[in-house]
Design goal:
Layout lengths: L1 H12 L7 E4 L3 H15 L3 H6 L3 H7 L2 H11 L1 H4 L3 E10 L2 E9 L5 E11 L2 E10 L7
Length: about 140
């Protein structure tokens, strides 16, 4: 399992800002998919949350329970956010990435990129990468 998570992290890290980015108009379907998955996590409904995952993620984790455990351990800010804000939707190297800003219960902000795929007419989450917070200087 550790090798699997390490491999996922490596693959996702390779999708960073090396490629040109095009900011797109917001896509309500993408935002609804992400928000619906977060809502399912807030209810500990891992089955519903798993339904929003793309086949590549479903194949890796195999069961909603495995998927839920990974999110609880690796992405606690997704499992229990205090607030959710949608940032830019970007096209990067042929993929669509939705930035999501989550505030946890302690008030810390977390920036994540959700890689989205259209599968059978439905938006699905194909990966999530934790981003470095933007540098805010005066």
């Amino acid at each position: 399992m550790r090798n699997l998570i390490t491999g996922l992290a490596l693959a996702l890290s390779m999708t960073g800002s090396l490629w040109a980015q095009e900011v797109l108009a917001p896509e309500p379907g993408i935002e609804n998919t992400i928000q619906s998955q977060i809502d399912a996590f807030l209810q500990d409904d891992f089955g519903t949350a798993f339904d929003f995952a793309a086949p590549n993620i479903r194949n890796i984790f195999r069961t909603p329970e495995n998927f839920g455990a990974m999110v609880q351990q690796g992405y606690p800010m997704v499992w229990r956010p205090d607030s959710v804000t949608f940032g830019d939707l970007r096209a990067i190297a042929g993929g669509l990435y939705q930035m999501v800003i989550l505030k946890d219960a302690a008030g810390n902000l977390h920036y994540l990129d959700y890689r989205m795929q259209m599968i059978d007419g439905q938006w699905r989450i194909a990966g999530v990468q934790i981003l470095q917070a933007p540098d805010v200087t005066a």
